[in-house]
Amino acid sequence: QVQLVESGGGLVQPGGTLRLSCAAHRITFEIYTMAWYRQAPGKQRELVASITNDHYTRYADSVKGRFTISRDDAKKTVYVQMNSLKPEDTAVYYCNAQSSLSHVYWGKGTLVTVSL
């Protein structure tokens, strides 16, 4: 079945950087809009950034100018480069794939903790 496998999470100090990766398996990757969501403790899951199959990107206001989403269709991988991290960026980050036919898939998530 389809699998989305996130990696790259961890503990980082405020102001630090991380790059998350999401490798997709058994999926026609190039037709999907890929996205990163996050969910902090006690909060709803929210969209962080998305990238369409023609590389149109969209960002949450809270991460604009700090995060950059990109994709490599040959590697079936989507990335998010996270700079100038803040404690409020602490959350579990989830990879999401959605097609125009409304097929939706989720990864299991990777934890990002921003703390001293």
Short descriptors:
116 residues, mainly beta, seven-stranded mixed beta sheet, four-stranded antiparallel beta sheet, 11 strands, globular
Distance between the termini: 39 Å
Calculate the mean pLDDT score and round it: 96
* Run of helices and strands: EEEEEEEEEEE
Anisotropy-based shape: globular
Gyration radius, to the nearest Å? 13 Å
How many helices? The count is 0
Helix content: under 10%
Please state the structural category. mainly beta
What proportion of the residues form beta strands (DSSP E)? over 45%
Question: Can you tell me the residue ranges where pLDDT is under 50 for at least 5 consecutive residues?
Answer: none
The major sheet is characterized as:
7 strands, mixed
- Using DSSP, what is the number of strands? 11
Care to describe what's here?
This protein has 116 residues and is mostly beta strands. It is built from no helices and 11 strands. It has strands at residues 3-7, 10-12, 18-25, 33-39, 46-51, 57-59, 67-72, 77-82, 91-98, 104-106, 110-114. Strands 2, 4, 5, 6, 9, 10 and 11 form a 7-stranded mixed beta sheet that branches. It has a 4-stranded antiparallel beta sheet with strand order 1-3-8-7, with no helix packed on it. 30% of the residues are buried.
